[in-house]
Amino acid sequence: MAFVGVTWALSAGCGGGGNHAPVALGRAWTSYGGNAQHSALSDAATQDLASVHWSRPVDLYPAYTNGSLYIHYGSPVITRANTVVFPVKTGLTEGFRFDAVAGATGSSRWSMATDYRLPPHNWIPSVTACLTPSGRLYLPAAGGTLLVREDPDAFVSATSRIAFFGDVAYAADPTAFGATVFVNTPLTSDDLGNVYFGVHVTGVNPAGVTSCLVKITPTGIATAVSIPTYSADMSKVTHGCAPALSPDGATLYVTVNSANGTGGSAGYLVAVRASDLGFLAKVRLTDPKSALDSYVAEDGTASPTVGPDGDVYIGVLENPLGSSHYRGWLLHFDAALTLSKIPGAFGWDDTASVVPSSMVPSYTGASAYLLMVKYNNYVQAGGDGVNRLAILDPNASAIESISGFAAMAEVLTVAAVTPDADYVATHPGAVREWCINTAAVSPATNSIVCNNEDGICYRWNLVTNTLDQSVVLAPPTGEAYTPTAIGPDGTVYAINNAVLNAIGR
Q1: Per-residue pLDDT tens for 189-240?
Q2: Alpha-carbon distance 97 to 112, whole Å?
Q3: What does the alpha-carbon distance between residue 106 and residue 271 come to, in Å, rounded to a whole number?
Q4: With 0-12 CB in 10 A as exposed, 13-18 as middle and 19+ as buried, what is 444?
């Protein structure tokens, strides 16, 4: 069958269970980056970082390479009733389940296996679920399918499986689909309960499915559009790129590339209609300094962030590789992708967080919001090892010291504090690097919570520009970047050394 703009009617489960947790006050943390714009903004005041309330493993068989973990552990999602749902890797290279615990105590509520299989990869990509406004939980599963749990707060709930290419087709040959069709991005839900994700296809399958962008409605109607429809020279949505939505929910953004699970390639940022995934616009992702194609990497998790004004931000690697110490760029576009704006000087494996300018009393510029990014400067790539966090002004430029190029002006920066024993002898200022790919923002406390490879989670106070609170989570461990999140009661969640930690007063 033709596989461009095809729509299928699907079955979806219904019902639910009881035994609900008490309703908390803050918003749910629904997906990677907290919401469909990936702003990582919370309306809850973070609790003080005084102690670890509870910890749970997110990997039963961590695969260390020379002491480092090259795996992007998926973001927890947190319901408004304060149930925390997170993925757990159950095998050395494959196998996943999702566990749910009470946010306040860490006590188990339920555990649900998924037959999800990873796409071809180098670093293990993130496996992340999403919550819809009605409270449904969608989980990635085998063969490009999703599992649906109707009530994630209940001990027992109705569940179902949805195959975007047809439940009957999947049931007829699940093995064939499981071997060739893979969900390869985190899941994102809009305000209407529609769910969006990317699919990577590696071979022939009974439904003729090819690599595509998928939408599933709350009533189980699926739309899938093959990626070459958007750009004939690209083959798939980038591994780990969580789809992002405009503030009005009308436009969906993803990056696409032609890689096959390892390395990376040139690519585009694509805008499509959220209603039917119809093409709107695309822009080639290029290095702002060299004008060469940027490198859209498979080992990263950089996903679009959409600002309150509709501007779109996406991280890429520089070209020539290494010319900016492997920091990459945060590219910046208007909502229509017709205007390229001031870039940021760090983008590799980072999803920018939105910071209302009122959170920074010292800021005197005109922008209504600022951006928080990781600002590492890797010794092993030619940098000085002074790994920092930064608040950037997306609408003001200044010559950035490392690249010598006009980039987003630095409003605040703060360096990590733990000396890096591997480099400090030759680079006296070298400190352990920040290991976040999306950092949670708490306007109520004018603070941001961030992980570091020194095994400590910090609170960055934007009023004093200090790391004013911290709690030790694990021994120092090199690792691929992981998210921080904030629950509706202000509990902070951070992953260090394959363990999810709940942190608070």
Answers
A1: 999 999 999 999 999 999 999 999 999 999 999 999 999 999 999 999 999 9
A2: 6
A3: 40
A4: middle
Contact 437/483 with Cβ under 8 angstroms? yes
Q: How far apart are CA 304 and CA 38, in angstroms?
A: 7
Residues 223, 275: Cα–Cα separation, whole Å: 9
Phi/psi of residue 177, nearest 5 degrees:
-70, -40
341 and 70 Cβ atoms separated by less than 8 Å: no
Q: Are 32 and 186 in contact (CB under 8 A)?
A: yes
Strand order in the sheet with 96-102: 77-78, 83-89, 96-102, 108-114
230, 219 contact by CB (below 8 A): no
- Grouping H, G, I as helix, E, B as strand and the rest as coil, residue 375 is strand
Between CA 31 and CA 48 the distance in angstroms is: 24
What would the two tokens of residue 94 be? 């494959």
Two structure tokens written together for 400 = 């950035």
Q: Are 193 and 138 in contact (CB under 8 A)?
A: no
> CB–CB of 316/296 below 8 Å?
yes
**Sheet (strand 312-316) strand order:** 305-306, 312-316, 329-333
CB-based contact 252:244 (threshold 8 Å): yes
CB 164 within 8 A of CB 5: no
HEC letters along 163-230? ECCCHHHHHHCHHHHHHHEEECCCCEECCCCCEEEEEEECCCCCCCCCCEEEEECCCCEEEEEEHHHC
Which residues fall within 8 angstroms of residue 244, CB to CB, at 6 or more apart? Answer: 33, 36, 37, 38, 188, 252, 253, 254, 303, 304, 305, 306, 312
pTM: 0.94
Q: Are 304 and 185 in contact (CB under 8 A)?
A: no
Cβ(161)–Cβ(141) under 8 Å? yes
Tokens in use for 148?
A: 């649906």
What is the torsional sign of CA 103, 374, 58, 236?
A: positive
As a residue count, the chain comes to: 505
List residues bridging with 139 in a β-sheet.
147
pLDDT in tens, 259-318: 999 899 999 999 999 999 999 999 999 999 999 999 999 999 999 999 999 999 999 999
> Two tokens at 82?
């304060």
